[in-house]
Design brief:
Elements lengths: L5 E5 L7 H13 L4 E5 L5 H10 L7 H17 L5 H6 L3 E5 L2 H7 L6 H7 L1 H6 L4 E6 L2 H11 L9 H17 L6 E5 L4 H12 L5
Parallel strand pairs: 1-3, 1-4, 2-3, 4-5
């Protein structure tokens, strides 16, 4: 059986990636590709704790948050109930809202990127994306979208952090250009316009 593909959508908060996972899955299913949609942090026990921290219901040092993300990601891959590695081995294509590039960018604001990459190395060795699609938007656009669509402000949503996070995404892409497939896509415009750009980046892997 042919293995499934692993497509990851990345971007700073407010880039619009979360609204693109569903349309991409539906387009693939229309082509007869068995698909599954997922996101990080997950709904598992570690991911639930991360979400509590983000919304102020629990507190933790940023280094602890980085370690929790690494643990949640590994469980996402290998847990016995719905681990991604087993699904992809069964021929299911997975479309994920975030993966380890999010950690490389967001957590490297507070700590050395080498540490963050090392903390996620087991996950990277187990499963690298077929392609990572990065939706790039100006920070000002991202902040406006966040204000319009969220009732609770999360800890990483400050302008200075978002600006630095975007810079660190591109630093991580440059560092790992020899081992990762990354497509940078303009995330500005309507959902339909962005969806067409995302599909243009993904379609060659299903030709």
């Amino acid at each position: 059986m042919e293995r499934g593909k692993f497509i990851v959508l990345e971007g700073i908060d407010g880039s619009g990636k979360s609204s693109q996972t569903g349309p991409l899955v539906r387009r693939l299913e229309e082509l007869g590709v068995p698909c599954r949609e997922t996101r990080e942090p997950t709904g598992g026990p570690v991911g639930s704790l991360i979400r509590q921290i983000f919304t102020g219901r629990a507190t933790a040092d940023n280094r602890v948050i980085a370690a929790l993300y690494a643990a949640d990601r590994l469980d996402h891959l290998v847990n016995e109930v719905d681990g991604l590695c087993a699904a992809i081995d069964r021929g299911i294509t997975v479309v994920s809202d975030r993966y380890y590039f999010s950690s490389y960018a967001y957590h490297s604001v507070d700590m050395d990127m080498d540490w963050v990459i090392g903390a996620n190395s087991v996950s990277a060795d187990l499963l690298r994306p077929t392609v990572t699609v990065f939706l790039d938007v100006p920070v000002e656009t991202a902040l406006e979208r966040i204000r319009q669509n969220r009732y609770v402000e999360e800890i990483f949503d400050r302008e200075d952090r978002l600006r630095r996070t975007r810079e660190l995404y591109f630093e991580a892409f440059a560092r790992l250009r020899d081992v990762e497939n990354v497509a940078v896509v303009d995330g500005s415009g309507s959902r339909e316009q962005v969806a067409r750009r995302v599909w243009a980046a993904v379609a060659p892997y299903f030709a």
